[in-house]
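Lab notebook: predicted structure, single chain.

Context: the supervisor wants predicted structures on file for every construct in the current expression panel, including those that have not yet been purified. This is the next one on the list. No modifications to the sequence; it matches the entry in the shared construct table.
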Amino acid sequence: MIPKNRREFLSDVGRGMLAAGLGASLAQNLGFNPVFAEQGSESIPLGQYTALVELMRNTPAEKLQTLLAEKVLKGETDLKTLIAAGSLANAVTFGGCDYVGFHTAMAMLPALEMSKLLVKGRQPLPVLKVLYRNAQQIQSVGGASKTTLEALHAAEHAAATGDLGAQIRDACRKPDYELGEQLLATVGDSPLAAFNALQPAMQDDLNVHRFVFAHRTYGLVGLLGKEYSYSLLRQCVRFCADHERMRIEHKQPESPIRALVPKLLDQYKLVGISLGKRDPGDAAVKALSETIYQGPRDLAAEAVASALADGIDPEVVGEAISMASNLYVLRQPAEKWRTHGDSAGVHSSDATNAWRNMARVAESKHAVSGLIVAAYHAGIQSAPFETPPYPTAEHRALIKVEDGKGLLAETEDAIRQNDQGRATAAIQIYGERGYAVDPVFDLMIKYAISEDGRLHGEKYYHTVREEYRTTRPAFRWRQVVALARVTTSAYGYNREDEHGFRAAGYDDACKLLGVEA
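Prediction complete. Output recorded below exactly as produced.
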């Protein structure tokens, strides 16, 4: 027999125990295929999640959902454990380099947070939804036969000297993900230090996914624990290197942000600056947001650099960028009917939300440059939408009810009719009358779960909840109106924009849990 290393041995043990626990005939009936590790391939450490990860990588989506629902109902596992295992299964399989795969990874934490907002019987629904999507994509690339992330031990590499973040960025530019991963491995056992070391690479190009993926992956480290930090965060290196590879292959120019950010840092003397705490007031924040929205992009970036140099609180600057991103949802013209999924507004809002969160935890120098990048990225269209924001006066004229329950009922009917104007008008009037926001979120979460959302539903719902809490009262309701528009756009559409569909596996999940679909 060819000897196996410890990781391969434990992996095979995990699969063997799983198959034995299910029973041979049941495992076969469920479509469970216990693929064993190949000699020479040592995947990332899975620890206590080994058996669940193997189950998720070996089992077709519809059969996996049955097993996971049973485990939850019997109290054999909890939703946090399922999301942790699902994240590791995703990382092992895709390593941050699969479009549907990294979108699914970005939805893991939002789905878990959504579950906490539901009544007990419905709590597993968003988690089962995202794990169903995860399993579908894993099986589409070969299931457990595909292992992208192999073990790399920090102890095998000498500590790097000099600016580690710049070295990782330069490795991604080559692109050489192996070098980048080896450099990241020298950081040690501090997730925050690793996250800071990744910032120059994250800020080196303009792709909404590299921003949101980094933010959500760092959140998953917080969920799983620092022992999984390197295994998860190294995916960010691979993502950036893979993005650079595609840029080079398609003979595309380097992002202008690479030259613009150093120029602005020098021009406004932002290197080493002590960040201010000044709030210039509602009118100034609104003016800054409109400057960012109207662009052009380099002017938006410069406006943020100037604001930071003027001592305005980075939290306030981030708020203005978020308000600019929100305008892309509200101003998108009617002829561009799909405001959900990879639309300008959703992409810009999710990216800005990621940058705001990263700026809150990263070193000051990365917070400054990150917010400049965020402002540049917020001008996601070549030109801003010039149409009036939703709802217009014509939309408002459609609403004939005034009480809170009536306005929510009107909104739900508009969602089911894909009537974005009527839905936004009802929610705008609801807010103007001072009704509570929680019933609106309760309505929207129902459809964020039941509809496909083109891979963005969970993230955007979570983005809006966060941005509502961190936007000043004068402007925060705009976030809720935008959510109403996006939710209405998504109703009934699958990923191919075909109408008459719900999220894959949703109806079956409701049946398994014994709740109304």
